Amino acid sequence: MRTPPPSKNLTLIDSLSRRVITLHLAVYWSRVRQEDSPPRIVEHPSDLIVSKGEPATLNCKAEGRPTPTVEWYKDGERVETDRDNPRSHRMLLPSGSLFFLRIVHGRRSKPDDGSYVCVARNYLGDAVSRNASLEVALLRDDFRQNPQNSVVAVGETATLECQPPRGHPEPTTFWRKDKARLDLKDDRITVRGGKLTISNTKKTDTGIYVCVAANMVGERESEKAQLSVFERPVFVQRPVNQVVLVDESLEFRCQVHGDPKPTLRWKKDDVDLYEKDDFVLRIKKASVSDQGTYVCLAENRVGKVEASAYLTIREAPQFVVRPRDQIVAQGRTATFPCETRGKPQPTVFWQREGSQKLLFPNQPTDEDGRVSVSVNGELTVASVQRADAGYYICQALTVAGSIMAKAQLEVADALKDRPPPIIRQGPSNQTQAVGGVALFRCQASGDPEPSVTWRKNGVSLLGKDPRFSLQEHGSLQIQNTRLSDVGLYTCVATSSSGQTSWSAYLDVRGLYLCEIYFVSHNSTIIPGPPSKPEVTDVTKSSISLSWEQGPEVGSPVSAYVIEAFGNSWQTVADHVKTAEFTVKDLRPNTVYLFIIRAVNAQGLGDPSPMSEPVRTQDISPTAQGVDHRRVQKELGDVVVNMHNPVVISSTSVQVTWTVENPSQFIQGYRVLFRQTSGLPSPGPWQIQDLKVASERNITLSGLKKGIVYEIKVRPYFNEFQGADSESMTARTMEEAPGAPPQQVTVLTIGSQNSTSISVSWDPPPSDQQNGIIQEYKIWCLANETRFHVNKSVDATIRSVVVGGLQTGVQYRVEVAAGTSAGVGVKSKPQLITLGAELTDIITGSEGNNSISDVVKQPAFIAGLGGACWIVLMGFSAWLYWRRKKRKGLSNYVRLKFSYPSLTLAGCRYRNVYCSSHCCDSRSGCADFVIQRGFS
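The chain above was modelled as a monomer; its predicted structure follows.
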């Protein structure tokens, strides 16, 4: 029999060994199950919340045989106890519980809070308890929201907010008042979520309140909050309505009480007046401007009340809108406004000069029914006839007096008095190449329809050359232009009412230097005509106009041109940027008509409808034709808020202001200022006008130095003025006095051997003091400094005795005044020698004949002659400019150019176009705005 291989023998032995081991283990375990048991947790640890630094115990009890060992784990890591480290603050008790000598919670050491389990072991296995959390109780110091001081009125609800600091467990809150816990048995007091609410507050609720947060860590107090319960103001006496006459005195009385004591302010028509402590507002001399609603306003920390009374001023009637002279064609309607004001409202009636008949509002009209008076006093004459010409008188009557104003009605011949034609679109300057085509536009209108003819250099043109032809609407076309065509071309529009002309220059260039295409005016791109101009004001030399912009077509309107007809149509203003303008330098007692043209990037637009004829006032002007009621109303709504004046120097102050509810009628602002220091009483108001309504600042110059000025601002329109701003004061900077003390007198005192002198003086002139005199300095100067004697005295002193001088020494005595800015000019030295004869030395004014000597000098005479020559030449240039400017209408043109094919190949096809420019083959686009006037 063969022996099996070694590998097979080993396998057999291994199999037999395993069987033996298995048999022994089975016998062993049967014995264990009968005697021992694995661990079992019989008491699991419970969650704990412990304050930092306090002891704590996590219980754990296990059973088993043999007795199991217990270990603790925190957040998966084994807990080190005193058995592992004698210095550990954690101890493992015999029962298996984990005891903490003190709870550690901080950044320096590993904190104790976390999730814990206990594990019991013996040789039979492990047992793990349930998780138990150990949390550290916290209560931070800082409240998330502290209560704030609160002020309420009696009867109101007071609320004090409080959010306690963060803590664990969440802290509870309660309140203390004046260090005592707040009693919540009062139904008025509730605490929810830390917020304290006290309804229907009483004076006794006033006190110091503290919010308290508490948990197992302890208590935290919030910041203290003061609750103040005050009483609202209550009227004891209210002001009452009053009616007084102009210049009478009156009092408004108003009395209140409250806690704290209310302050009292008076307002008139929503404008603050001033504060009063005796509750009485006195007006010594009532004026028309004092009429209005006066409000007594009482206010303290918890409320305010107000009571009003109306003051009615009886006043004589005044005109709001005066009737203005009218020029009306036969058959049309004349309207004369006449609006008045007064207290009571005046009765208005009309009378024609020379007639005894009175016309009242709503009165039945005369026999033919053409003349009537409306409710607002406006006189209307319908279907005007020549017999209606004359003066009409408007009269207003009240118990306080009466006024009257008259206006003239001129009746014009509907045919005879028509103006000459108006050229709607005239020719424009242009440049053409030889062989080109020139087209000059000329569209005219008028009644009757005008005819159009053309002149070249003043000579009639048509019919002499077939190249010249008159196109539709009066335009002139020139075919095959030549160099000889260069010249001034004038369009003349003629009718039975007169003629009007418009000229333009034609330049013809040879060698085809540039092909030029005239851009014809297209009604779709030039601006539309503005509205009919309305007259808003008339004086003997000016007329104010206003209008509205026409239809918005093409580019925006950039300016307006105003033309006037007196003897002929003239351009009286151009580059006007707003829709209102005052035409000046007109002739007195002259009838004018006006038209307005708008200008945009494409050119000059069609004219507006003609204004109604208006006559300037005579040398003795009548009332100005303006809607005075509207002016006064709008000026009354303007509120000027003046800023604090800024002192720029010792003689100037800058005044700035803002305007609420600005009015179009504001012509400018009147700045009033007066001296309030250095005089026994405030000085008279001085006025400086700012005649630019758009500006809001002005510099007052030429002021006195170191003086307090009161300043206010007032809007105005002609004789109408708005309300003053609140007055403010400013003191100019002080300077050292600009003049020495006056009448300096030096006297020796006593015997010939005396060492004292008396010095007296008067202050410098008031206009040279440059501030408040604070002291006077006296210098007694000798040839040697060791003998100098100086003295200073208060500003109230006017004489002083100076001692300690040396006999036989000559002294120069000087006196000077000083302000806060320094010492001023010294007086002229007065020489005195002690021990000499007694002397009185008094300064006096010195004669000065040097002016007459200077005047006699040749250099002065030559200089004066040269200055006169310069003034004369400047005046002549001004006259020339004025005359040239008044010569006629302005015309704006737009040209379009193409670079020539001969000088720049290919430019013809580029059709280069420069907006509001002329294109030149060398320089490209150059500014080219052409302006030509009527001949």
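Confidence is low (pLDDT under 50) at residues 511-523, 620-624, 838-860, 884-935.
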